[in-house]
Amino acid sequence: MARIGFVGLGNMGLPMARNLAKKGHEVRGYDLSTAAMDAAAQDGVGRAQSAADAARGADFVISMLPAGTHVRDAWLGAGGMAAACEPKAVLIDCSTIDVESARAVAAGRPMLDAPVSGGTMGAEAGTLTFMVGGPAEAFASAKPILEAMGRTIVHCGEAGAGQAAKLCNNMLLAISMIGTCEAFALAEKLGLSHEALFEVASKSSGQSWSLTTYCPVPGPVPGSPANRDYKPGFATALMLKDLGLSQQAAESAGAATPLGAAALALYRRFAEGGDAGTDFSGIIRMLRDEAR
Ligand code: NAD
């Protein structure tokens, strides 16, 4: 069993740390929030006094923080984790952050960027997908630890490749969701039923995950957020954050992503209209509201 330091015990980090403790690992956690620390302690996660304290003496050091600035600070800032780690420790950042921050934090260290998909339900159930960038030896050591928190673990390449995979995937998801919503909104105007469009598109060339697993209108896929008034699921604010990261990456890499830019503008407008906290598939309501 491994000694694991875990920093960032929020909506995702807490259930992930809990799953590691349940598998018998010795987990010591740290979060700026006392409430998060108290909740973790009830789940068998030991209390560290600081991020550096959580890192000290651990075989694996994991962070699950909001954004690139928090990750840079926690690892590289004064009293940061990078300086406190054992030289042989494997370092894993699971946050969704910009590719540049991921590469800056990893520089010269046995570090993996390992963002996840699957949301809080996947974190609770231990069924997350991990997209991992970094050295092959570090990946091989970390794989059993990631398997305690997830079901699908993919090595995507060198440092930053995990974040790159996450950003490309989520940009594609945003674009396909908006396309699916536009198709349903047009069908409504043309007098075509939701069921008929679903029946045809789910079996033909319009098929996608946004349609068949996460259908943005109620009915065809009973478990989708559309059936519970767009309670998330995957909140619009998080999609907006990921689209900001994919556009930032496209700009610095010189890639043309005009539909990514359009998706970012639409989701920004949707969030600013008061829907930051609702599910991202609810953008169909904005399309209907803006129709002539
Ligand atoms: P969260 O805001 O619930 O948790 C973040 C935690 O980090 C908070 O408890 C905060 O107090 C703590 N924190 C911030 N700075 C810290 C520091 N310097 N030291 C210690 N603790 C610190 O966020 P979350 O929903 O758990 O998301 C974490 C990451 O996972 C984000 O990058 C997010 O984009 C990504 N993600 C989230 C989801 C989701 O559905 N929530 C899904 C996939 C990926």
Number of domains: 2
Query: What's the overall average pLDDT, rounded?
Result: 96
- Spatial shape: elongated
Structural class by helix and strand composition: alpha/beta
Helix content: 40-55%
- Count helical runs: 14
* CATH architecture heading of the largest domain: 3-Layer(aba) Sandwich
Rg over CA atoms, rounded to whole Å, is: 20 Å
CATH class of the largest domain: Alpha Beta
Q: What does the main sheet amount to? A: 6 strands, parallel
Low-confidence stretches: none
CATH superfamily of the largest domain: NAD(P)-binding Rossmann-like Domain
Query: Looking across the biggest beta sheet, what order are the strands in?
Result: 3-2-1-4-5-6
Order of helices and strands: EHEHEHEHHEHEEHEHEHHHHHH
Report on this model:
- The protein has 14 helices and nine strands.
- The chain is of the alpha/beta class and 292 residues long.
- The chain has two domains: 3-157, 3-Layer(aba) Sandwich (Rossmann fold), CATH 3.40.50; 164-291, N-(1-d-carboxylethyl)-l-norvaline Dehydrogenase, domain 2 (Orthogonal Bundle), CATH 1.10.1040.
- The strands form two sheets. The chain has a six-stranded parallel sheet, sandwiched between helices. The chain has a three-stranded mixed sheet with strand order 7-8-9.
- α9 crosses α12 (236-253), α9 (161-190) crosses α13 and α12 packs antiparallel against α13.
- It is elongated and about 65 Å long.
- The protein binds nicotinamide-adenine-dinucleotide.
- The site of nicotinamide-adenine-dinucleotide (NAD) has 27 residues, from α4, β7, α7 and α12.
